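Deliverable D5.2: sample structural annotation.
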Amino acid sequence: MIAVPGSAGTRRARLAALGYYVPEHRLTNSDLEKLVDTTDDWIVSRTGIRERRIAAPDEATSDLAIKAAEDVLANAGRSAQDIDVLIVPTCTPDHLFPSVAALTADAIGARGAAAFDIQAACSGFIYGLAQAVALVESGLATSVLVVGAELFSRIVNPGDRSTFILFGDAAAGALVVADDDGGPSGFFGFELGADGSKGDQLQIPVGGTRHPASLAFDQADAYLQMNGREVFKFATRVMEESVLRLLERLEMTVDDIDLMVPHQANQRIIDHAIGRLGIPPERVFGNLEHYGNTSAASIPLALAEARDAGVLTSGMRVMMVGFGAGLTWAASLVRYEPT
């Protein structure tokens, strides 16, 4: 699915603010050497990851989301009462229900806001932005907060080296607001898709209605399971293709991208994609080495850090692209317009 916001003459949506929260505890590759059969050199050479953040035992996903939401609002200079809708992309919710979004909205004081979660795994933040833009440009909302929040340290198998080393915990988000100045949408377009035929390549077998946790199960099936080779092949293909499809629809080229912020999953996947696209490394921002794969929090966390580093500045055109369980993919080109 390719969508171009504002093409029907609706009011424009603007990416107005960013924010994030990461837990204090760092789990380094040296720490992992004591837990699983691995080495720092092995992890860095295959993934680019050097450390990741791990939530405290008393922290749940909503605790991370609350702090990230508050940071977004602080950076926007707005209160929680200004929020019409709160969307939380996550695949590691506190509970099957209530949603993380509902818990977060209550905690920050946005009690009158609509609130719901989105489950598109690592593509979730861009899916959430698409929902936010649709709500704003249709006139259903004037201010939508999207917070990707994940606590993957609770769903990875400590005995599975191939997945245990990859993931970390974080929350980060963005504020999308209406701007009736008559200009074009700040979001140039979205390219979203999914291939459910490959859903079993990245999954948690137990816990849903197919195999409820109330029935007997192998403990390993309660953790994330991934066919790394197949996911790698899928990711390297769709990251390039989704960007190119979106640029073609927009009648733009890679030269129109000021900054690319890909999903931070694996440095080899990122290098392959930007190499195929022909985007110079200096126009690509990443923080994978410090956080690992934080799923739906990955892209907004990188955006916020790029802002803090002075790499992302007002008016820049940013290409975001990601992939995840489903298998899903997503890309979006947006102009950053902070309040």
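Annotation notes: The chain has one domain: 1-339. The domain at 1-339 is CATH 3.40.47.10 (Peroxisomal Thiolase; Chain A, domain 1).
The annotation will be released with the project's public dataset once the embargo ends.
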